[in-house]
């Protein structure tokens, strides 16, 4: 089984800023390069943090209100200081949450979900920036055709990994949902088969035997 990695989907030409990059230059970088966030790096090319459009918009939120309302009153002291910052170093969210190029797409997705971020700077073995991966990059795996997913499951999972003959179990795929039909020699193979199929890039779901019932089209039990 071949899993796509962060290296396969990341953007390699990364727009960056330095800690002393002025606010207006950061805004100009966003506009010129059609991006919504950029890593802030040090002199060795290591990410210190990430500055996003949201960080710049926060400055708008603390501008004086024409109607006299207290601007930015919902911000704590830390966020207010960031809103009033004039350079990327003051505006950025830090420390940077990073990924490695060899991570699987699933690992990167878990990191994004855990830290509630929309993109991850990608670093090498010594922490230098080599790329950036976004949520939309990770979603590329779900663009795989059903036929490619079906072939990988039938050949790699069922045939090469589980050593099941084609007349024992076969997979059908529709819109990324996998339906398995046939019989396995041991009941213990059912959850293993389900788990391996779910791990294939592009799979949306594999309905379980318990969910579909004993008389369903799912894998039967010998």
Supply the CATH class of the largest domain.
Alpha Beta
What is the domain tally? 2
According to CATH, the fold-level topology of the largest domain is CBS-domain
How large is the radius of gyration?
24 Å
Instruction: Give unreliable regions as ranges.
Output: 210-222
Strand neighbour order, sheet with most strands: 1-2-3
Largest sheet: 3 strands, mixed
Compact summary:
Helices cover 36% and strands 19% of the residues. Helix 3 crosses helix 4. The two termini are 26 Å apart.
Describe this structure in words.
- Helix content is about 35%, strand content about 20%.
- The chain is of the alpha/beta class and about 220 residues long.
- The protein contains 10 helices and 9 strands.
- The chain has 2 domains: about 5-140, CBS-domain (Roll); about 145-220, Histidine-containing Protein, Chain: A (2-Layer Sandwich), CATH 3.30.1340.
- Strand 7 and strand 8 form a beta hairpin.
- The two termini are about 25 Å apart.
- The strands form 3 sheets. It has a 3-stranded mixed β-sheet. Strands 4-5-6 form a 3-stranded mixed β-sheet.
């Amino acid at each position: 089984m071949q899993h796509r990695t962060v290296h396969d989907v990341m953007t390699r030409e990364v727009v960056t800023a330095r800690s002393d990059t002025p606010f207006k230059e950061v805004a100009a970088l966003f506009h010129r390069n059609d991006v919504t966030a950029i890593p802030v790096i040090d002199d060795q090319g290591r990410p210190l943090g990430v500055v996003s459009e949201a960080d710049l918009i926060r400055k708008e939120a603390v501008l004086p209100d024409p109607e006299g309302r207290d601007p930015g009153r919902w911000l704590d002291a830390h966020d207010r200081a960031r809103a009033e910052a004039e350079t990327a170093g003051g505006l950025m969210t830090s420390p940077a949450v990073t990924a490695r190029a060899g991570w699987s797409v699933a690992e990167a997705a878990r990191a994004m979900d855990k830290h509630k971020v929309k993109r991850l700077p990608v670093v090498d073995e010594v922490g230098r920036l080599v790329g950036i991966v976004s949520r939309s990059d990770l979603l590329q795996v779900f663009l795989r055709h059903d036929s490619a997913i079906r072939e990988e499951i039938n050949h790699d999972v069922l045939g090469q990994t589980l050593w099941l003959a084609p007349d024992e179990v076969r997979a059908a795929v529709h819109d990324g949902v996998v339906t398995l039909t046939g019989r396995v020699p041991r009941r213990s193979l059912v959850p293993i088969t389900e788990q391996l199929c779910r791990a294939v890039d592009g799979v949306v779901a594999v309905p379980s035997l318990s969910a579909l019932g004993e008389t369903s089209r799912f894998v039967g039990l010998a």
